Every structure is written in structure tokens, then in C-alpha cells.
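User: Um, what's this?
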Amino acid sequence: MQSVWVCRHWSVAFRGRQRSEISLRTSSGRRLIAAIPRSFLWRHAPSPAPIMKPADLIRLLSLAAIWGASFLFIRIGAPVLGPLPSAFLRVLIGAVTLAACLPLLGLRWDMRGKWRAVIVVGIVNSGIPFVMYAIAALWLPAGYSAVFNAMTPLMGVLIGSLFFAEKLTRAKALGVMLGVAGVAVLTRTGPVAFSAQVLLGAAACLVATACYGFAGFLTRRWITERGGLDSRLVATGSLAGASLFLLPFCVAALVRHNTLGDAGAGVWGAMLGLGMVCTAIAYILYYRLIADLGPVRSLTVTFLIPPFGIVWGALFLGETLSWAHLAGGALIGMAVWLVLRPAPVVAEPSAVRS
């Protein structure tokens, strides 16, 4: 009995009608023949990748456009309302909208004893990041924040390697370095003059992406690995938890300086769009994409958000476009591709008679 590695890229020749013979070569060059029932081959054949239909492509582009517009709405609302009130309104409106949609989606409000985990995930995945992006919007153009948001998968790689024993491959390490280079190019050579405020805004965006990275691992450990929960329920509960978390901070900020009276119709429209469309409806679209295309292909939306964010900022806020957007965005895009590209297939050893 000898153990060999059966890999997908090896050539396979089938002969006979009742059984199949698979021809393999070991690392020493020795040829092995094994008789394998066809039923086994059919059961263990890799499933074909889902085909992206026109409706899937429309949903993907719509989601990228919606999430790209979120940075536009934050840029409109946060400087007027302040970071804490604008972030609180976003999660509150999003939670109410999703809760109203649950019956239409055929879901019951049942967290199956996972409320505490869902609330903590909501604080990490929504409460803190939304405040950070609102702080960044005080100084950074919407296009900058949209580009920095693409660092999320890279932060996930770093956090997984540092805190969750995830393997850091060479490709992923190179991706992280390219991502850092992209951030440096945009902040140092972009149309906004480099300053301490720009640096603080960039740091706030990176804190937000780090929170997203942590939230993914916490969700897997506390929810997915403990029986799971419908993703739309997790989204609704996490937004509700983020609302409870931000409520006292929002009240304290408004007691110190009530900014609600300063907001005009445009600001309130931006808050409604941010909470209802860019948060609630975007979550529903995203989970539909995951169901149709799988989680990996759905993450391609990460590449499409920055262009939309830059375009919306230029069209509606008059933000300046420059080659730094292209150079920095290209570096971050290459970094994200290195991180998200499928890993080589590692098959399990199979015993074959020699």
C-alpha cells in the first residue's frame, strides 16, 4: 500500500464500461494504476462553478453602485450632523428597514439563543466602522474612502494571520504590501494636499476595514460554527445591536451640540438613502449574490466599489479626479486580486495499490 497525492490537474484516462482505471504518477516517476468505481468518481467530481447570468451581473453592478454611493451620502451627512449622529441614523434606519422586510422574505425574528454574539458582531461590523467612515468624511473626499474600503480583504488576511492562526501565503503577503503602497500613493500624491487631517482620515478608514476583517472571523467562530443562522437575520440583528451601542454616544453628542436643526432636506435624503438603500437593500442584494454565485465570486464587488465611489463624488460633489486615483486604486486592486484569487487545490492523500 502506497500513499500518493491525487490532484485535479493530473491527466486521467478512463477505460472499460463497468469500471474506470485512473493512471497516476508519483513524484519518483513510478506509474500506478487503480480501479475506481464510476459511482465514486461521479460522487466526488468537483461541482461546476455557478454561471453568472445577466440578472446576476445586474445585481453585482447595482450592489457596487449602491455601496459606492454610500461614501457620497456619508460625505454629505457627516460634516453637518457629526460622525456619531450620522452613524447612528444609518444603523437605525437600516435595522428598521430590514426588520420590516423580514416577513416579506419569509423569515421569523428568531436568533436561536445567539443574540449576544449577533450584538457583538454588529458593534464590530457596523457600529465602529460606520463611525470611522463618518470621521473620515470630515476631511476625505468620497472617492478616497471608497478606495480605502477596498483594503478590507487585505485587513482580513493580516488579522487572520495575527489572531486566528490563518496561513499567510506569499501571494497574500505581497497583496498586503501592494495595498499599503496603494494607500500611500493616494494619500501622498492625490488631489487633496497631504496633511495631518488627511492622515487621520486614512487611518479611520483603515480602522473600519480592520473591524470588517475581525467581524468576519468572529461571525464564523461564534455563529457559523455553532449551528449557523440565516445571514439576513444576522444582518438585521447586528444593525439592531449597533443601534443600541451607538445610542448613548449619539445622545451625548447631540446634548453637547444639537446638529439636527442644521440638516436640510438634502442631508436627510442622504441619511435615508444611506440607511435604507446602501445598508438594508444592499445587504439583501449581497446575500442573494452569495446564494446565486457563492461567497468567493460575490467578493468581486470589492473591485467595483472604488470606481463607482470616485465617479459619484466627481459627479455630485465636484471632487477632483487625478492619476493618483488610478495608480493607488490599481495597486489596491492588484492586492485584492492576489488575496481573493482561488488557492491551488490541495487534495487529500488516497491509498492506491502498487
Remarks:
- Confidence is low (pLDDT under 50) at residues 1-28, 38-46, 348-354.
- Strands lie at 2-5, 20-25, 31-36, 349-352.
- The first strand starts at residue 2 and ends at 5.
